[in-house]
Amino acid sequence: MEVSDIGNTLAETLPGDILLEIFTYLDISSLISASQVCNTWHHIYNTETLWKNKAQAVNVEEKKYILNSRKQGLSWKDSFLSNYGDNLVRKKWRKGQLSTISKFEDIPARHMCKMTSAEWGDIFKREEMR
C-alpha cells in the first residue's frame, strides 16, 4: 500500500457522523479544502446539518443575522456564509450601520476587513445617498 493510499482509505472509511463532527470545528478555508478531497467529504460539506452546527457556534450578533437570513428562506449554508466574519462586516458597512457611530464606545469590536476599492466605492456612494 502506498502512503497516498492510506489517506484515501481513511477519508473513505470514517463514519459520516464523525466527519460531520470534525468538519464543524474547521474554519471556512479548511472546509472548502476538505470538500475537494472526495465525494463523501463534498457531500458532508453541503449538508444543512453541518452549516446549522456551525451557526450554533458563532457569537450572538452573527447568529442574529444568520437566523434573519433563514427567515427569508436562505439555506443554513447560504445564511452562514453571507453573515459570517468579513461578510457580516461588509454587510454592516453597506447598510450604513457603521457610519453613524458618534463615540468610541459605539465602535464594534469587529468593524474592519479587507475590501476592494470597488467595495469601498459602493459604500461611499451609499453614504452620499443617506
UniProtKB/TrEMBL annotation:
Source organism, top-level taxon: Eukaryota
Domain F-box: 8-54
Coiled coil (residue ranges): none
Database matches in Gene3D superfamilies: 1.20.1280.50
PANTHER family from the UniProt entry: OS05G0526300 PROTEIN
Protein name, UniProt field: F-box domain-containing protein
